[in-house]
Specification:
It contains 2 helices and 2 strands; from the N terminus they run E-E-H-H. By secondary structure, the protein is of the alpha+beta class.
């Protein structure tokens, strides 16, 4: 079941539904509408202290493979 809603003043307000939610029902909230790239670009360039060759040798740093020289 999917029930749509909107965040208003920091609270999730669900749209009226023909299926009532019982008191104490567990729910899962999924944020929709924010493009993934736009979300990720907010963090671009924020990491500090990383090796200068991380992009070229990420398999070395993550998985221990030999470095690409």
């Amino acid at each position: 079941m999917v029930i749509d809603g909107t965040v208003i003043n920091g609270q999730i307000v669900v749209e009226p539904s023909h299926v009532p939610l019982p008191e104490g029902a567990k729910v899962r909230v999924e944020v929709v509408g924010e493009p993934t790239l736009e979300f990720l670009l907010k963090y671009a360039g924020k990491a500090v202290g990383l090796p200068a060759d991380l992009a070229k040798n990420h398999d070395h740093y993550l998985h221990g493979k030999p470095k690409n020289e």
